[in-house]
């Protein structure tokens, strides 16, 4: 008992002493000043680091008057780190002599270099302008954990997304999408579908490369969109699980993970999404002027639904400090059902019925892609930034389509029911060598590449025999199509970095050999051509926070499998579509001048001009029985003059706004089947995002966007207005986010319409789409990491071919 009383007495004495001690914390304050102007620097990043481990303990932003205040636990040795875009970073020791340490006026001097030696994770800039590209830091966007990758595209400078979910780069569909600098199976057939299912949280940044350097393939008239996924991994593991339920389309699930154990590292994600089988109305109205005036009306319902699954994986092994191996595996699979139920009526000029029939089309579709890659990177002892990389990649993408068309309730219409089949795809092998040597002022890059590409399509039609009830093959609608396209290239480029200037230029030589075989009709195509593609860009630093960029490049538009495939799609017998295997590449010339200011937030203004001849355009002609056929042809001579404005501005520490806008003047002309077409006009888009954060973990987001009608060779397409609202709540130390988002709450459907006009006819097509949706979901983080994974800095980038375009 005496021992117990003694212990209790000692505890009471200790508590009493503790109660008389000062709190074990101290405060550091000061003011951040521009050394040249002697004015305050607001929104500079200020952090206190553990002097021994260099890990940040607490960070904040300086106020408008440059002042800051940080309170941290005592008992450690600290250093103060200050960083601001366009200024030299500064590290100061903190001498703890009292409960409050006043660092006084701290001068930051301007620098033309970005932050290099000090990493502070408190605030990251959204926009970064390099000599040949713009980068959007997705992880710095507070909405990245809530919205999809496709929705994130609307915020990125120079990009827009229309009502049909088509992504456009400066109003054009002629570009290439890369994943981590490489062509990927994820983007094999329908990039919009994958990006709509993928959360933006999987992405580190999105690069828009409008003046691609010589190391990139020359394809893509407008440029390259490079999506860089999250890979910053370290010893240990972490991951994230995101689930979402959409009131119209169904569920989405995505799991991402990064793991580092010794020299072995892994990063990747896997996801799946549902598209419910739903129907939406449509109408097609056509007026024909010759040979006999008439009109056609189609009304009905389109149906579509299915599932989408995807995965992206990268494995890295550090053999030693100079040798690195990495392997990639990507896969995407989309399958589902589609069809329509429609009634067609043909009238004469007096509105008498000339023909009528009811059509039911039920079908299935499947798209999948797989790519496997291997990269080896060799560093050099005398300079570890000097690198040699050898890469190999195999890609296999395929799509199949089946349609069962049945007609009834006919008036003066005798076309029987029929089945259509089309199995098409691409098999591709790529080998590449790259060398980069960053000297003190000059960086030299050189390399060689070989792409062996095989497009294929096997399609046929079986027609119903009404008397026997059996289907028989139609020989004139059957074909086995193979198209071999081999591209061999060499490139050499140089970058010169001076105090206020950066110059980058190079040449790329490409040899293309084509061998096509239409086995069913006995037609063979064998030809080749050479291209020498220059590129040049320059950046001038005007001061510590602004710069001026100029760029010029030539680009090639090679046709893709969808445009080349001669498959005749008769799922709607009144409006037929088909590819054109006789398409040839087109060359465009692009000029660009831009200004960027990154003092507080960012402002980027750019103007550009491009011209090209013989571009690939959609063209529609009128045939027998008032049937129109849409295909692709090298008929476009186009000119585009445009201005892009992007503003990202913090109204306060809690409230920010982003504006992304574009205005283009377009001139198009071309001759097809003896008819001359010309069209011109303005087109563009504007997207505004505003986000507000509260101290108790709530985030509020507002998005409003408008995409205008775009100029086509034979008409105009639809305009699109969108608005969305979301609320996010952070829980469990920000490891769990719960959110609800409402998209376009004021209308259940919207109508997307298109106009096509020639001397013989004009057509109006209108399709209803589900517009109002409600999304509910959560995002959960787990795990802990300690050191970075290494990955090869060069790799295969197949950006040399384009898919079927929509808008130009």
Explain what the structure shows.
It is a single chain. The chain is globular and about 100 Å long. The protein starts with a helix and ends in a 23-residue tail after the last strand. By secondary structure, it is mainly β. Strand 41 and strand 42 form a beta hairpin. It has four helices and 43 strands.
| Strand percent estimate | over 45%
Q: How much helix is in the residues?
A: under 10%
Low-confidence stretches: 1-23, 112-123, 801-808
Q: What is the first-to-last residue Cα distance? A: 92 Å
Mean pLDDT: 84
Q: Biggest sheet, in brief?
A: 22 strands, antiparallel, barrel
Radius of gyration over all CA atoms, rounded: 30 Å
**What's the count of strands?**
43
How many DSSP H or I helices? Answer: 4
Shape: globular
Structural class: mainly beta
Summarize this, please?
By secondary structure, the chain is mainly β.
Question: Can you lay out the helices and strands and say which pair or pack?
Answer:
Elements: H1 2-20, E1 25-34, E2 45-50, E3 56-61, E4 67-73, E5 78-83, E6 90-93, E7 100-108, E8 127-129, E9 134-137, H2 149-153, E10 159-161, E11 167-169, E12 175-179, H3 191-197, E13 203-209, E14 223-229, E15 236-246, E16 250-261, E17 264-288, E18 294-318, E19 323-348, E20 353-380, E21 383-411, E22 418-438, E23 442-464, E24 471-473, E25 479-497, E26 501-518, E27 523-543, E28 546-557, H4 561-564, E29 568-569, E30 575-578, E31 586-597, E32 602-622, E33 628-650, E34 655-672, E35 675-693, E36 698-707, E37 711-712, E38 715-716, E39 720-731, E40 736-743, E41 749-757, E42 761-770, E43 773-785
Parallel strand pairs: 1-7, 12-14, 30-33
Antiparallel strand pairs: 1-4, 2-3, 2-5, 5-6, 8-9, 9-13, 10-11, 13-14, 15-16, 15-43, 16-17, 17-18, 17-42, 18-19, 19-20, 20-21, 21-22, 22-23, 23-24, 23-25, 25-26, 26-27, 27-28, 28-31, 29-30, 31-32, 32-33, 33-34, 34-35, 35-36, 36-39, 37-38, 38-41, 39-40, 40-43, 41-42
